[in-house]
Design a protein that fits this description.
Blueprint: E1 23-30, E2 39-42, E3 45-48, H1 50-65, E4 69-76, E5 80-87, H2 97-103, H3 116-138
Antiparallel strand pairs: 1-5, 2-3, 4-5
Helix pairs in contact: 1-3
Length: 139
């Protein structure tokens, strides 16, 4: 757990910056306590375990679930993840505008937008739920 007396992390977020602005964002997400839950390094390659592969699949599904989001390069490491998220450059194709707005919790006719924190939060929630589900079913 984060304790400001022990951990002296400083936010690298820009004050007053609108993180729903169109752009490409580099994100790093770390596993709690930096546990190696996603795989291991053997020689010079990473071998992903089931949870590491799940992280990859969930990442690839982001654009399917969030029409204004694109993904670019990413890498899964044993205890963390790096990826590039592109916000707002992709049109809301495939679904009618009303359907896209309803799917994303916006009133019909509203402009569906996702900020970087929204997308990261949803990615973390999905992967955490899928990880827990896998652990329960592995027994």
């Amino acid at each position: 757990m984060y304790n400001p007396e022990i951990h002296h992390r400083h936010s690298i977020r820009l004050k007053n910056y609108d993180y729903s602005s169109v752009g490409a964002y580099f994100v790093t997400l770390c596993v709690q306590n930096r546990e190696s839950l996603f795989g291991s390094i053997t020689d010079v390659e990473i071998e992903l375990c089931a949870s590491g592969k799940m992280i990859c699949e969930t990442w690839k599904q982001l654009p399917e679930n969030y029409p204004s989001v694109e993904i670019d390069d990413y890498v899964v490491m044993p205890n963390h993840f790096h990826g590039i998220i592109i916000i707002g450059t992709r049109p809301f194709g495939g679904l009618g505008d009303g359907a896209a707005c309803l799917l994303q919790g916006h009133p019909q006719g509203g402009a569906p937008t996702f900020s970087l924190p929204d997308v990261v939060h949803r990615f973390k929630s999905l992967t955490t739920a899928r990880y827990r589900h896998g652990v329960i079913h592995r027994g």
